[in-house]
Design a protein that fits this description.
477 residues; Rossmann fold; Elongation Factor Tu (Ef-tu), domain 3; six-stranded parallel sheet; 16 helices; 16% strand; iron-sulfur; iron; oxidoreductase activity; metal ion binding; oxidoreductase
């Protein structure tokens, strides 16, 4: 039976009513493949930066640093090259390339994208300041006239200024203080200006970039990088979603209220057995039912896909999730995905711990059904302060799959707590060890609010769980 957390050992389970599911089958080898992809893509990023630095060096980049005026121009050249490469890397990171999505996962890609984006923007500002300073002969009184001459007399410079303005808008709205004041839908719309900024920057590099034009190998490198970025967006963010939408023709079959403010939408379509989706992943969905249809929102699958239907569940937090309750059966659906690495793809151990807080239990509910495990090999910890979700479904999985379920009800006694109220004198480390003395032998799948997830990761690391066995999904943006 489902147990309420009390910091004590679980009650001994009865024998399962069904035989072990998939006992003795080898684990998915995708985890090893993904580690290799992460290594190779990291090396490719640094190799690209080293390559453009090498071309700058052989073109006299260091020699030019010996003088103030030529030094400013030389620094402007290298910062511009680094910025341009990282700008295109940003596009590739979020272009939904399958091998990147599989290897890194959306959360990690978004964090890397953020670091790369701010670094590229800082380098771009340094490029603008140093290039203008060099062309003005390091005489700051000449800067206004120099800027005017550059913009009006050099090919592509006016478009480059427009690109800079677009990227400033994107960066400004990406700051945490700004994001807290924006709706997700507004932020997402403004963020699309990044693509416009990248496109407007290309003519400047084509028409005035010495490093782009003077060396055939460099020309091939830059054209290949630009082409890969453009093709990735067109194929994986535009073409593939349209093709899958036409092929699978998803429609809403039912809308079910799971709890106050929490709604599940059931979907069906054609040939869903051909859709490469796994339990724990999410879709970016557009309901074609009126105003707001053009804005896609990410929704986690809350049931393992069975080839005939899908189910997504969300809590009313923003405009997109709030309108779920009003969606009518029969509504056509466009979707992107599936995305996310919180699935069997990340698994490397037989034993698994699923830990979720609030509506973060949604993808874990799908994992509890879709993962291959024998009775006793999977444990679920579920934190909630109000009504628990999927109670009957978890009870069924306990009885028929041998899933161990622990409820963690109540409000956290302090901000850094992750397990909730415990008996006096029992630490969270001790409580978790009592339930899972072999915790380090588990793959751990986490989903919940960012602060709770970060706290749980710290708790796991303090108990000796390796970082590559901890897999997270965030509902933040």
């Amino acid at each position: 039976m489902t147990q309420t957390w009390a910091g004590a050992r679980p009650v001994t389970r009865a024998e399962p009513v069904t035989p072990p599911v998939g006992a003795g089958r080898p684990l998915d080898a995708d985890a090893r493949t993904d580690r290799t992809v992460r290594l190779l893509t990291g090396l490719a990023l640094w190799a690209g930066l080293l390559l453009v630095t090498y071309w700058w060096l052989v073109d006299g980049g260091v020699r030019d640093l010996a003088h103030w005026v030529t030094g400013l121009t030389s620094v402007g050249r290298i910062t511009g090259l680094w910025s341009a490469e990282l700008l295109l890397v940003q596009v590739l990171l979020m272009s939904r390339l399958p091998f990147l999505e599989h290897a890194w996962g959306r959360d990690r890609l978004a964090r890397i994208h953020r670091v790369v984006g701010f670094t590229s923007f800082d380098l771009m500002l340094a490029h603008v300041v140093t290039i203008v300073g060099g062309y003005a002969s390091a005489r700051w009184s000449l800067v206004p006239a120099t800027v005017w001459e550059l913009v009006t007399a050099y090919g592509g410079m006016l478009l480059a200024v427009a690109a800079l303005i677009c990227l400033i808008i994107v960066v400004a709205t990406s700051l945490r203080a700004a994001r807290r004041r924006l709706r997700y839908e507004s932020w997402h719309l403004l963020h699309l200006y990044a693509y416009l900024g990248v496109g407007l920057a290309l003519p400047h590099q084509l028409w005035t970039g010495q490093e782009f034009l003077d060396r055939p190998a460099a020309t091939v490198f830059w054209w290949s990088l630009w082409g890969a970025a453009a093709a990735s967006v067109l194929v994986w963010r535009v073409g593939l979603p349209l093709a899958r939408g036409l092929r699978h023709r998803l429609r809403v079959t039912a809308v079910v209220t799971e709890a106050p403010g929490v709604v599940s939408v059931h979907l069906s379509g054609r040939r869903l057995d051909r859709l490469p989706v796994r339990a724990g992943q999410f879709l970016t969905v557009r309901f074609l039912d009126g105003p707001g249809w053009s804005r896609g929102n990410p929704f986690s699958l809350s049931a393992a896909p069975d080839g005939r239907r899908l189910r997504v569940t969300a809590k009313a937090l923003g405009d997109g999730s709030s309108r779920l309750a009003a969606v009518r059966p029969g509504t056509r659906v466009l979707f992107e995905g599936p995305y996310g690495r919180l699935s069997s793809r990340a698994r490397s151990r037989r034993k698994v711990l699923l830990a979720g807080a609030g509506v973060g239990i949604t993808p874990l509910r799908a994992l509890a059904e879709g993962l291959d495990y024998a009775p006793g090999e999977a444990t679920l910890l579920y934190r909630f302060t109000e009504q628990p979700l999927f109670d009957d479904e978890f009870r069924f999985l306990e009885q028929h799959r041998g899933l161990r379920v622990f409820h963690l009800p109540g409000r956290r006694p302090r901000p850094d707590s992750v397990l909730g109220p415990l008996r006096s004198g029992i630490t969270e480390e001790t409580a978790l060890r009592r339930v899972l003395p072999d915790l380090a032998e588990h793959d751990v799948f986490l989903c919940g609010p960012d602060s709770w997830t970060a706290g749980f990761v710290r708790l796991l690391r303090s108990l000796g769980v390796p970082a590559d066995q901890i897999h997270t999904e965030s509902f933040g943006w």
